[in-house]
# Entry
Amino acid sequence: MANSHKACKHCKKSIRVESMTVRQFGNFCSVAHSEDWVITNRERLAKKGRKIRKQISAHELRELNRNTISWQESQTQKAFNAMRKNEELLWFKERGLTPTCISCGKAKGGDVWACGHLKTQGSNSRLRFDRANTYIQHNKRCNSDLSGDIYGTSTTHGYLAGLKLRFGEEEGQRIIDYCDSNNSPIKRTCEELEEMRKEFNRVNREVLKQLENS
Ligand SMILES: [Zn+2]
Ligand SMILES: [Zn+2]
# Structure
């Protein structure tokens, strides 16, 4: 329909449909206003919670989420952790070794593997997606119940000693020093996090293939 007009969802100004910025959550007079709408509504969402959430569809909510750093970080962390667990399994398999936990040195047993961070995800944004900071760990016993078991207990050597036992004194210390010194905060954009996630998923698929074929 030529000459048909619609109101911008953000500023309500009437504008020709052909020249609108079309997003899954509405039509806008400009890219800037589509972004402004997302920011405004994110704030309303956080403040009013369920009432506002009811007014937008699940699809729109997903689109809103895509524009929040916290959602992007958690999705990218899931992809990274899944990739790292498989990379670790491959590392052990290539050496003909049974996979063991970095903190207690024991096999999986009745637990499941977690991607254990030496420096926690929350406190260290720079290392949360870094291979040097992550090794397999018992999900319940060592990661959850012992908060990563960094320093060891009466019955376990702990994460730090585990690095030296697995990689040797020198290499283990190099990893610890690297993690200790790379602690300046880093801010990533939604786009950067999406790109990283794509790459982690791609690598994970390749590692899975190698695990199946070896
Ligand atoms: Zn507008
Ligand atoms: Zn363990």
The pocket of zinc ion (ligand 1) is lined by residues 8, 10-11, 13, 28-29, 33 (CB under 6 Å).
